[in-house]
Design a protein that fits this description.
By secondary structure, this protein is α+β, with helices and mostly antiparallel strands. It folds into two domains: 112 residues, Phosphorylase Kinase, domain 1, CATH 3.30.200.20; 184 residues, Transferase(Phosphotransferase) domain 1 (Transferase(Phosphotransferase), domain 1, Orthogonal Bundle). The longest helix is centred in the middle third of the chain and has 20 residues. The chain is globular.
Length: 301
């Protein structure tokens, strides 16, 4: 088996422990040279994530491996390799660290930091009201990580609660860059014009139509959807809807920031994830004051 260390790899990036389905370990024990498989953590359409121990160092890691039927799929192999390579130059405490890329005839996958905790989806399913400050804190961490990603010319394209991990201190780790895209990529694109990749309900309008060019502002839209869901328990489902319609304790500047980030036109959103975070903290003078009041009056008349 070839274990190819990605050159100079010091990223805080990537993983797909954000698979939320109920799973159970397979009947056949999985054998990966150099690792002892402890348990299956999650399973998706193309593979599974396992907790494992590096038998050389004793370190606990997560292994994201393609399923047997996808190992021979050239597109899936390239996608998972890009998932690791896309983030190899990045470092941020709110991105999961990638250690190695495994490439063999029978085993293809990524060796990653093991994050003990839960996904943001699990937190939402608990049904408890999330404090405004806590929701803004988590989204600010995501935004800070996204700024590093965007500065590198990358767009995540699949931000959703399933792809956000929370460690035991409730700090965020952004994961799953399997469909991330770089405008500077010299290799072949993994999607074709007219093909939509992403998750309905979290995709921006331009991403959903499959034809419009998608950039970092699509991630800002998705982040606003996540914040709306954290605050209200509901996704706006494509509506330009302030979360304050559901929570009376929400400051107007947060409503105004969310409305701006949910604009259908990318050019009407924030020009960076950092600006969005600043607006959520009431520090961005570009956000139009009184926007929420005008929206509230228009919906009651």
């Amino acid at each position: 088996m070839s274990r190819r260390r990605l050159g100079g790899l010091n990223p805080k990036g990537l993983m797909s422990l954000a698979v939320d389905e109920e799973t159970s370990a397979g009947n056949q024990p999985l054998q990966i040279p150099g690792f002892e498989i402890i348990s299956e953590l999650g399973r998706g359409a193309a593979g599974a994530v396992y907790e494992a121990t590096n038998t050389e160092t004793g370190e606990s890691v997560a292994l994201k491996l393609l399923s047997d039927e996808h190992v021979s799929d050239g597109l899936q192999r390239e996608r998972i390799e890009r998932e690791a390579a896309a983030m190899q130059a990045l470092s941020h405490p709110n991105l999961v660290t990638v250690y190695d890329f495994i490439d063999d005839k029978s085993v293809v996958g990524i060796v990653m930091e093991l994050v003990r905790g839960q996904t943001l989806r699990h937190l939402l399913r608990e049904g408890h009201e999330i404090a405004i400050d806590e929701a803004v804190r988590m989204v600010s961490q995501i935004g800070s990580a996204l700024q590093v990603v965007h500065d590198a010319g990358l767009t995540h394209r699949d931000l959703k609660p399933e792809n956000i991990l929370l460690d035991q201190e409730k700090n965020v780790k952004v994961t799953d860059f399997g469909i991330a895209f770089s405008e500077d990529s010299a290799g072949p694109r993994l999607t074709l014009t007219g093909m939509t990749l992403g998750t309905v309900g979290y995709m921006s309008p331009e991403q959903a139509d499959g034809f419009t060019k998608v950039d970092f502002r699509s991630d800002i839209y998705s982040l606003a959807v996540i914040l709306h869901e954290l605050i209200t328990g509901e996704s706006p489902d494509g509506r330009l809807e302030p979360p304050g319609l559901y929570r009376d304790d929400l400051p107007d500047y947060i409503n105004e920031a969310v409305v701006k980030a949910l604009n259908a036109k990318p050019e009407d959103r924030f020009s960076s994830a950092t600006e969005f975070v600043s607006a959520l903290q009431g520090k961005d003078p570009q956000v139009k004051r009184g926007l929420f009041d005008r929206f509230r009056k228009s919906t009651t008349t």
